[in-house]
Design brief:
single chain; 17% strand; alpha/beta; two-stranded parallel ribbon; binds uridine-5'-diphosphate; seven-stranded parallel beta sheet; binds nicotinamide-adenine-dinucleotide; 321 residues
């Protein structure tokens, strides 16, 4: 490890993406130096443009499926397309990103003897038969379906993290992130919150897949980043996996109605086929996070978080007009 003082040199992979850019802001605010490594597959320079003049920030165009030799004190591995539309665009590259990416970054962490964080996902639970999902649940994942490149890639990355921990004593932190939304999601990302808001603001039909009775639990990005920071600061004996998300569960139809109400939109609901293997329900059990992360729990109510996200997309679409 380079130093033990409070200011560190930190690597964030996937830092030009939605979550990564918020994490980097928080780390810079805390006085750290940040290196962002991203191949800009789904992320954009726009998300980090305001950070480029900061002398404590550095952008590295890099694909994590290739080795990376740099000197840092801490690693956050967020690189991976997260939306079903993006990760199924090039499924082989998605699995490579999760698996080869994890191996390279774990190899880097091993050489540097530094702490490493993995952005895992609620998708490791698949279409869950246990509800809400606790960390002990092993999941219900189709290994050969259209979502498998993401789900199994992330599951294998967890395996690698725990094997490097057991075999090489690596200091790991694994977060299982549940659906998170907020400013800087990509407008064409394909995920439900960005889709609904963009459709509502443009007065287009709101596309509900299936009957909209499937559920998700949506967490505002600031709450999630608080959870990240607290998890990374825990004692070495706490590795996770640790669920991070907002337990407030709702149906997709309820989400659509809320977005229409908050945007005052005249958009109508239209129903499209439900994608294959789309999970019917999802809600995090955050008992572990609450007890190990100093009482952490999400603070931002859905309506407040949606208002902030709507304001972001409104400005973004305004610029494009
Ligand atoms: P995002 O698509 O906005 O960000 C992912 C970033 O990774 C992008 O900047 C992209 O360019 C980069 N990337 C992709 N492949 C890469 C590669 N091979 N090498 C280098 N960079 C690469 O998505 P996000 O929502 O910010 O997700 C960040 C992480 O959190 C992902 O690992 C995702 O799986 C995980 N996650 C997110 C959510 C969520 O709800 N947002 C939920 C569960 C897990
Ligand atoms: N690696 C890297 N940066 C480093 C050290 C390792 O990118 O500073 C990569 C390298 O590609 C290597 C992988 O991490 O193959 C795994 O490293 P490890 O030491 O675990 O295994 P090995 O080098 O024996 O394959
Ligand atoms: N969804 C929808 N309309 C859209 C986009 C998504 O009804 O325009 C549904 C999707 O089928 C899923 C839920 O919303 O049931 C959440 O989808 P998302 O892609 O945001 O995340 P994930 O399925 O990975 O939880």
């Amino acid at each position: 490890m380079r130093s033990h003082d409070s200011s560190k040199r930190v690597l964030v992979t996937g830092g030009a993406g939605f979550l990564g850019s918020h994490l980097i802001e928080r780390l810079l605010d805390q006085g750290h130096e940040v290196v962002c490594a991203d191949n800009l597959f789904t992320g954009t320079k726009r998300n980090i443009a305001h950070l480029l003049p900061n002398p404590h920030f550095e952008f590295l165009r890099h694909d994590v499926t290739f080795p990376l030799y740099i000197e840092v004190d801490e690693i956050w591995n967020l690189a991976c397309p997260a939306s079903p539309v993006h990760y199924s665009h090039d499924p082989v590259q998605t699995t490579k990103t999760s698996v080869h990416g994890a191996i390279n970054l774990l190899g880097l962490a091993k050489r540097l003897d530094c702490r490493i964080f993995q952005a895992s996902t609620s998708e490791v639970y698949g279409d869950p038969s246990v509800h809400p999902q606790r960390e002990e649940y092993w999941g219900n994942v189709n290994p050969i379906g259209p979502r498998s490149c993401y789900d199994e890639g992330k599951r294998c990355a967890e395996t690698l993290f725990f094997d490097y921990h057991r075999q090489h004593g690596l200091d790991i932190k694994v977060a299982r992130i549940f659906n998170t939304y907020g400013p800087r999601m990509h407008p064409n990302d394909g995920r439900v919150v960005s889709n609904f808001i963009v459709q509502a603001l443009r007065g287009e039909n709101i596309t509900i897949y299936g009957e909209g009775q499937q559920t998700r639990s949506f967490c505002y990005v600031d709450d999630l980043i608080d959870g990240f920071i607290r998890l990374m600061a825990t004692e070495k004996d706490f590795t996770g996996p640790c669920n991070l998300g907002n337990p407030a569960e709702m149906t997709i139809r309820e989400l659509a109605e809320t977005v229409i109400a908050l945007t005052n939109s005249g958009s109508k609901l239209v129903f499209k086929p439900l994608p294959q293997d789309d999970p019917m329900q999802r809600q995090p059990d955050i008992t572990l996070a609450k007890s190990r992360l100093g009482g952490w729990e999400p603070q931002v109510k859905l309506e407040d978080g949606l208002r902030r996200t709507i304001a972001y997309f409104d400005a973004l679409l305004g610029e494009a007009r």
